[in-house]
Amino acid sequence: MALIVQKYGGTSVGSVERIRAVADKIIESRKQGHQVVVVVSAMSGETDRLLKLARDLAPQPDSREVDVLLSTGEQVTIALLSIALQAKGYPSVSFTGAQVHILTDSAFNKARIIDIDAARVQKALHEGKVVVIAGFQGIDSDGNITTLGRGGSDTTAVAMAAALKATECAIYTDVDGVYTADPRIVPDARRLDRLSYEEMLEMASLGSKVLQIRSVEFANKYKVPVRVLSSFKEGAGTLITDEDEKMEQALISGIAHNRDEAKLTIVGVPDRPGVAYSILGPVAEANIEVDMIVQNVSAEGMTDFTFTVHRNDYDTALKILEKTSEKIGARGVTGDKKIAKLSIVGVGMRSHAGIASKMFKALADEGINIQMISTSEIKVSVVVDEKYLELGVRILHSAFGLDKHGFIEN
Ligand code: ADP
Ligand code: ASP
Ligand code: MG
User: Fold this and answer.
1) Residue of the nearest CA to atom 8 in ligand 2?
2) What is the three-class DSSP state of 269?
């Protein structure tokens, strides 16, 4: 008898009919003799709806209260799913994050899971119940409700699977696996049978929102095999595990995109030791994460310094930068919210040169200007004008042969 954790996303529990269908899927697993722990998201659109209510009352609502509010979305679905299971004659019990002691830090809206006490879940499983747990939420050491950041139910599921030493964590969603690019943008994208944690981590960090980044970090740390599958369609989905020799040795496994970033530049900065710190120090103090950073070669003792932040942090970062600019005697500050980041990801890149230039050529051939570049061992990212996002993703997808076979002959 295996213990399986299944997670159902917002679309999969978006209506009473769909909740009923999810109950049937769970019952199927039970009939195969498995113990099942289910993690659910709020019904599709619900988290956005709640956020809008808060923002209608205050432009920047208090983050603690936002978490109290948002956690209700998942509380609705756990109860409904449990009711649906019971109506079909299957014993089940629902729990909020707090009820199963999902202890997090106190970073409201983006809390991190510190510990899970699996005892209550195990007890219910031993009683023969299906356990339904609210995703995306936890509780801090002072008893405040916290949430884990958008897409956080994935992380609840993987963390639960780790805590319970489950055989597998199945993430049921509205696509039937992880694709070589977002299938909504690239119709020719191919489903990947397997992917390493490392590659999935890069894809997720670079904007592929099919899994929340932290869920992949957890999976990698505790070696939880994760399978991404469709709630609507049969199939094996995509298995995310450690890299092994049998894995398809594609040079590039996928193209990721991200339109959540914005770019800020401070121009005419006197170039002296400590410049980067004097610019980025105050940004970090404001708890704003910086992604790409570029400092130009200095000319006549002056340099330009550009970096990207999340778009939600743009206004705050701009204000901070304007102050810094005055303080350090820079010429001024400019910014651009309409940017997109395109990335190619693949472990095969480690052993091959020329991948980056192939990417730059493909974009150049279409007249797409590259504004910033950043590379690591297994990825190359570029920032371009947002209007080129979809075109850029498609061009790169075909330039690297991903629509055909996923391999590039040298
Ligand atoms: P859920 O509500 O089930 O958590 P999400 O919307 O969070 O679902 O994630 C699924 C979506 O992720 C898909 O509908 C798809 O548009 C998007 N996506 C982005 N990149 C990829 C990719 N490489 N492969 C599959 N889906 C992707
Ligand atoms: N309901 C939350 C969100 O919409 C968490 C999740 O669905 O994973 O982001
Ligand atoms: Mg999601």
Assistant:
1) 151
2) strand
